[in-house]
Design a protein that fits this description.
This protein is α/β, with parallel strands linked by helices and about 375 residues long. It has one domain: pyruvate-formate lyase- activating enzyme (Alpha-Beta Horseshoe). It is built from 13 helices and 17 strands. The strands form four sheets. The protein has an eight-stranded mixed β-sheet. A five-stranded mixed β-sheet has the order 2-1-3-8-6. A hairpin with a 5-residue loop joins strand 15 and strand 16. Helix 10 packs parallel to helix 11 and helix 11 runs parallel beside helix 13. The longest helix has 18 residues. The structure holds iron/sulfur cluster (SF4).
């Protein structure tokens, strides 16, 4: 998910329709009883996708998950879904093959050298989600059946890039590849297997130079990732926030469950991270964010050789994302008041609304001190 404006990645409060709720306890546990798993109601399969070996594996997973409404198309065009309701679209998975232009790795500062797609769209219902402004059309989730072709294209850019490759601060990460720019890949994992395949590919492929896969998630279903041959080449970040922000997130795992999942991954040898996003100056924000950082520290306490990073992303919106968010969540309490924000120009000149300089300075200063105090081993990658 990520121009950091985008990482990250529904009062439709956290409880949408086709997901299984996670436990709510903050207590660390080796195996959460019920991780959040999304199961689509309707699946559309293009002809080319049905012919791909990975596509067939996805179909087997969907069958095991009990999905009955699977519609095989005679060609590769998806039907016109313009009139699909928000709810119907969010329950629809389209199994497709990637266009050459979609597969091409794209620079994605400040997160990573390159982004690449294993899917587009997310079943979560986060009212602030950046996808509202970056993906067009109804919010279905497209899963790429030709994943091996997508992964094969990454070899072309190993050793190139300007965010980590060759830089003094982050060069040791190698060439970095962000997989969560347009989806939350863990949300889909139990019906796709795409994330496991990607992690294993990064861990075992003979790369021309050092590489790292990165993804960030608001989900907690990590059981199947623990024993993968990740080779230390995948950094998983938990996307986390405080209660007054979490109430805008529906369908996702609760924050304590995300942190517990991150602890399990760290103990399985994965480099890990926190994506604190979107940061909002909610009531009593110092105490709330302080408690969040303390919880993260408790979950990661005692992890041998802990490799931890932190990324901090303040809330922002664009005219387009605001329009879509208000269309999807007309009763949202999200702060989308342009008059209380500063106007900035993002990449390609796009307008975005961010907190004013004084608010940003206060937040940033506090986080710098609190992170040094609560998570002294963490490397802060960026603030935006
Ligand atoms: S988990 Fe939420 S913020 Fe992340 S991509 Fe999904 S809907 Fe967007």
């Amino acid at each position: 998910m990520v121009d950091a404006a985008q990482v990250v990645g529904p009062g439709v409060p956290a409880a949408p329709t086709s997901t299984t709720p996670a436990r709510t306890s903050a207590a660390p546990a080796d195996r959460p009883a019920r991780p959040v798993r999304w199961t689509p109601r309707t699946v559309l399969v293009t002809a080319s996708a049905a012919a791909e070996p990975h596509g067939r594996q996805v179909l087997q997973r969907l069958e095991r998950a009990g999905v009955e409404d699977v519609r095989f198309l005679s060609g590769d065009r998806l039907p016109n879904l313009r009139d699909a309701s928000y709810g119907d679209a969010k329950r629809t998975l389209a199994l497709v093959t990637s266009a050459a232009s979609t597969r091409k790795p794209v620079p994605i500062p400040p997160s990573a050298d390159w982004s690449f797609p294993i899917a587009q769209g997310c079943p979560g219902h986060c009212q602030y989600c950046y996808l509202a402004g970056s993906l067009s059309g109804p919010p279905i989730t497209r899963v790429y059946a030709d994943l091996p072709r997508v992964l094969a294209g990454l070899d072309d850019v190993v050793g190139a890039g300007s965010v980590t490759t060759g830089t003094a601060a982050r060069g040791h990460e190698g060439t970095t590849f962000e997989a969560s720019c347009y989806t939350d890949p863990l949300a889909l994992e139990h019906v796709t297997g795409s994330l496991s395949a990607t992690i294993s590919h990064f861990g075992t492929h003979d790369w021309a130079g050092p590489v790292q896969l990165r993804f960030t998630t608001k989900y907690d279903d990590v059981e199947d990732l623990l024993a993968l041959p990740h080779g230390g080449r995948t950094r998983v970040r938990a996307s986390v926030g405080v209660r007054d922000v979490e109430r805008f997130e529906g369908g996702t795992a609760r924050v304590p469950a995300r942190l517990a999942a991150l602890g399990r991954l760290a103990r399985a040898g994965y480099p890990v991270g926190l994506t604190i996003a979107p940061i909002m100056p909610v009531d009593d924000w110092r105490a709330e964010y302080g408690a969040l950082l303390a919880s993260a520290a408790a979950e990661l306490d005692g992890v041998p050789g802990l490799d931890l990073t932190v990324e901090c992303i303040t809330h922002r919106f664009t005219p387009k994302s605001k329009d879509v968010q208000l269309d999807w969540y007309p009763r949202t309490k999200l702060d989308l008041d342009e008059s209380a924000r500063s106007r900035k120009h993002g990449r390609f000149g796009a307008v975005k609304y961010v907190y004013d300089a004084a608010t940003t300075r206060e937040l940033r200063g506090w986080f710098e001190d609190a992170l040094a105090r609560e998570l002294p081993a963490a490397r802060v990658l960026y603030w935006t």
